[in-house]
């Protein structure tokens, strides 16, 4: 096993500290969110809260560096960077789901809150299962690496990001809606922010509940991609879970901040596909050509930086023939 993956900082003290920091962050998140909503300043609130979660993650990374060594802190920050980047693609799908079910912005809060709770549960399950498998069956690293390479190709081959995302969740929502409507009557024209509506003595599911079900399905799918990706960076249970949680807990405010611009981000899927492909290749070849964590972080940061810069410059990387389309 690669030396960097032998880092183990398991201990009750770090888990308790992590719980205290996250709990404090959630309390401040709720208080600040309620304050800015009451003042009608949701965008400003999203900026402050998103910045707060990012700052809290960096602060916790520094704590890990100070108490457990620079290598452990390095692994945490690398995992956080990867998970935060992949989460942006999840937000694109959530935005498409809201559009599909015509959920108004003022009603999206409950779906986001419970959707993020579901993401935490799914990641908790996948993290523990993934770490256990790698500890007891090292050959699983090749399975996870292959899964990441397949996910990278699938993401890259989507020719139109918005249409592909819509098709992907639409196919999933179709059979989920069939299951939902078979269990409870569905009222497609229901308005408001309730998951259920009572009419004529009957209880009906609303588009809010339907959107939540599809969001949870997308959370499950993204967990399948994201957890193997971070397991390609470190196998330490604490580092994997804590970096995941800091990335996920800030998603609600990040969505409120970026909702209008998410579908305009150029080269997003191409850049994320490159990250998945790099980590997948690293997992497949790690036993033979190990890379240091500093090189891995520089590669990931370089890919993401190139994605952002090319998008800001209006450079579109073509997917059909590999062309680079420059702005006019």
Automatic annotation (TrEMBL):
Keywords: Membrane, Transmembrane, Transmembrane helix. Its main location: membrane. The chain crosses the membrane at residues 12-33, 45-64, 76-99, 111-133, 209-233, 239-258, 295-315. One of its GO terms (cellular component) is membrane. Pfam families: TerC. It is found in: Membrane. It is a multi-pass membrane protein. This is Tellurium resistance protein TerC. It comes from Symbiodinium natans.
